[in-house]
Design brief:
Helices cover 44% and strands 13% of the residues. The protein is of the alpha/beta class. Helix 6 crosses helix 9.
Length: 769
């Protein structure tokens, strides 16, 4: 532990200015505390000494006279990070590269790991940079002052590195990011403790044995009162027992393939808890593609653990991390004026949630983009991933163009750092066919083991649940589809575009007002939750229910319609829509009708290519069409898709940046959602909206405000300068009087439709397609 008594005798070199109690923080205190906490964070992935080095050196430049004058307000634009980065390189050579990058990046983001770039850290070269920066003092002087201050560095022979080198591409970059994560999280926590007096509470333990007992009891109670057919309950019980038994398997890469409605959500959680119990793993991270699934999954988990002793407070046992808009704006800005002394910078860091809870529920965007990020606010949570169970549900949504670097990074996380990665879906992508390409990008390959070796039998058991009618004739107008829906007591129709959903809903509502509903991501999470709750209640009570939705309803959303319509699209999407039909086996046989709309627009890129493969399979198959309950159908489908898309040849710029270990360029090019987005808080719930607006206008927002606002926010594409949307929104203010570039309040006179959600003025084209 840090010797508090000895720290009071240190020379008066300061790390931070005065806090609320009027006390500045001695530099020696700060460096020692960050080093200790970073070493603690680095221990689970074998980087305790390396993280301690980074912690000791990260602010060593603050020993310079110019930085001390900066704290007095007499200087500005002082580089206090290059000194520590260069000392790590000069002292530890190859074993200092990761620490040097982390130290340099703790204010300006991770930079390139090229030899030329690393040489620029040498003090004599600083003035020759394209963007010269003023060092805080002579290098030897600041390092000597650190030594006099009683902060010894580990010997070179004791300082091995986890960094696997530039030839390892994705693997080597993950090594650096994990060390960087340990450093920036430790730095932020200790800085916040100084300025805000924030105490650090140890994370709750996973307590896997107790959690598993409670979960299995909960599942049995659900079976007893579910109302599902006996054969469906049998399928769910079989999957659960298989997953529980598989927990003894060693940490590694796995797939979990089971039909929709088979109970994968709770079965894979049971596997994760059993697996963590057998192997002493630290936490469970559940990665989901859509906010609708996160909302539903979070409610399920709260139902399991929310009222149980040992898991309180529940908000610390299960953490939801979805910024709605993605990861790219949650970052420290590339300016050497920014410092955690500044309230605005600390607030930006606070916007990014840590993953120190036993169970984390997050989005694919958050997980994947964080694994390829270069900014402190986005990367600070990554050190929690080693020795964890990471469950990717509905993994068929992983963008194919990003598949190879994603698989390479995840496979390295598993093999090098003891994490288990599970890919779960009813429509398992044939990623094993990309194994050789994964190896070329620095991963150990992609050869996962199936957790449910008898999954063919599960699919056979649900075959009689649904009959699929494939398109063989004319295209249908929205009027045709609306008339068909109006003639059915309960029916779901899933279309390809939000614009199509709005058009079809308007047509349906004009002819059949009773029981007509719309669902899309134009609606805030609370609005979607209310619609889904009403739909589920109507289905349960047998009242009229006709739902028009986009793909957001397909994967993982617990709905059970007797009839489902699906506009022609990717085969995996059609299968997911079919999973909302006769889900609980309450009908003798449900009907899924696939149709081709007259307005046959599709989202571009991979979605359109996947739809063309579905069309090709239709042409090849007989009158019965492709068999959605035959896993071999999807092997053929994905092989055809890979042949068409050639993921090993896509994103050439990204692949080149990965080979160069160019962290800023990789972060720029790796986008799960190509266009950046922002969050607009909307007046769906007028009273809650007024409270949020009043709080945001009276004081800078904090993390509690952001947590409350998420349920009332809609994601829209970031508007370009001059976009009319700016006339209808205002940015919230962060601490330090800085305006957020991610969170906005809706100020339009109307704009939020009680059935369709946010309607932006027609001149703006910013809504996500």
């Amino acid at each position: 532990m840090v010797d508090e008594a000895s720290m009071r005798a240190t020379p008066p070199y300061l790390a931070h200015s005065r806090n609320l109690t009027g006390e500045p923080e001695p530099l020696r205190v700060h460096l020692a505390r960050v080093a200790e906490r970073a070493a603690e964070f680095g221990q689970p992935f074998g980087a305790s000494i390396e993280a301690r080095i980074a912690g000791l050196l990260h602010d060593v430049g603050k020993y310079g006279d110019l930085f001390q004058r900066r704290l007095e307000g007499k200087e500005h634009g002082i580089d206090h990070w290059s000194a520590g980065a260069w000392e790590a390189l000069d002292r530890y050579h190859m074993n200092g590269i990761a620490a040097a990058l982390a130290i340099q990046g703790h204010h300006i983001g991770l930079q390139a790991a090229s030899p030329d770039h690393l040489r620029e850290l040498e003090p004599q070269r600083c003035a020759l940079r394209i963007r010269p920066r003023r060092l805080s003092g002579p290098h030897d002087e600041v390092v000597a002052r650190m030594s006099v201050d009683g902060l010894p560095l580990p010997k070179a022979g004791d300082a091995a590195s986890i960094y696997s080198g530039r030839e390892s591409h994705c693997a080597g970059m993950l090594d650096v990011r994990l060390l960087y994560s340990a450093l920036v999280d430790a730095d932020y926590i200790e800085t916040a403790a100084h300025f805000e007096g924030a105490s650090t509470t140890p994370p709750l333990p996973l307590n896997a044995a107790n959690a598993l007992t409670i979960l299995t009891r909960h599942i049995q109670s659900l079976r007893f009162g579910s109302g599902s057919a006996a054969d469906i309950n049998g399928i769910r019980e079989s999957l659960l027992q298989t997953c529980l038994s598989a927990g003894i398997q060693p940490p590694g890469l796995y797939t979990l393939t089971a039909p929709t409605g088979a109970g994968k959500t709770l079965a894979m959680l049971a596997f994760a808890l059993s697996h963590a119990l057998h192997h002493g793993l630290r936490r469970i991270v559940v990665v989901l593609p859509y906010l609708t699934i996160i909302e539903q999954t979070a409610r399920v988990y709260e139902g399991v653990f929310g009222a149980c002793a040992g898991f309180r407070p529940y908000e610390r046992y299960v953490v939801e991390d979805h910024s709605l808009a993605g990861t790219h704006t949650m970052a420290l800005h590339d300016s050497f004026e920014n410092d955690l002394d500044d309230e605005g910078e600390r607030s930006r860091m606070a916007e990014a949630r840590t993953w120190d809870a036993p169970i984390v529920i997050t989005t694919s965007v958050q997980m994947l983009e964080s694994l390829f990020a270069n900014r402190a606010g986005t990367c600070r949570k990554l050190h929690y991933l080693p020795r964890s169970v990471i469950l990717f549900d509905e993994v068929q949504t992983l963008p194919l163009a990003l598949a190879i670097p994603s698989l390479a990074t995840l496979s390295h996380l598993s093999k090098a750092y003891g994490s288990t990665v599970v890919f779960s879906t009813a429509t398992q992508p044939a990623f094993a066919h990309l194994d050789v390409h994964v190896r070329t990008m620095g991963g150990p390959g992609w050869r996962p083991t199936e957790l449910v070796p008898n999954h063919d039998r599960l699919f056979e058991a649900v075959r009689r649940r649904v009959r699929v009618e494939w398109p063989r004739g004319d295209k249908l107008s929205w009027t045709d589809v609306a008339e068909y829906m109006a003639s059915r007591h309960a029916v779901l129709c899933v279309v390809n575009m939000k614009r199509h959903a709005a058009e079809l809903f308007a047509t349906l509502a004009a002819t059949q007002e009773e029981g007509a509903f719309h669902l899309s991501t134009n609606m805030c999470p609370l609005h979607r939750h209310d619609v889904l709750s009403e739909v589920q209640t109507r289905l349960r009570e047998g009242r009229p229910c006709r739902l028009v939705a986009t793909q957001c309803v397909e994967a993982g959303v617990d709905l059970d319609f007797p009839v489902v319509l699906r506009a022609l699209g990717p085969l995996d999407a059609i299968t997911q829509a079919a999973g909302r039909c006769n889900r609980n086996g309450s009908q003798d046989c449900g009907t899924v009708r696939v149709f081709v709309p007259e307005n046959e627009d599709y989202p571009g890129g991979e979605y359109q290519r996947a739809t063309s493969i579905t069309r090709a399979l239709l042409q090849r198959s007989g009158p019965e069409g492709p068999d959605l309950n035959d896993p071999s159908t999807f092997k053929q489908y994905y092989r055809m898709l890979y042949d068409l898309s050639q993921p090993e040849k896509t994103k050439e710029q990204l692949r080149d940046a990965l080979r160069r270990h160019d962290f800023p360029e990789v972060a720029r090019l790796y986008r799960v959602i190509p266009r950046d987005a922002v969050n607009v808080v909307v007046p769906y719930d007028p009273s809650a909206f007024e409270r949020l607006v009043s709080a945001a206008e009276s004081a800078p927002v904090d993390s509690r405000w952001l947590t409350s606002a998420r349920r009332h926010a809609v994601s829209v594409y970031r508007p370009q300068p001059g976009d009319p949307l700016f006339s209808f929104v205002s940015a919230v203010t962060l601490s330090g009087k800085t305006s957020s570039d991610q969170w906005f309040l809706w100020k339009g006179p109307d704009g939020y439709d009680r059935r369709l959600g946010l309607i932006v003025p027609s001149a703006s084209q910013c809504l996500i397609a």
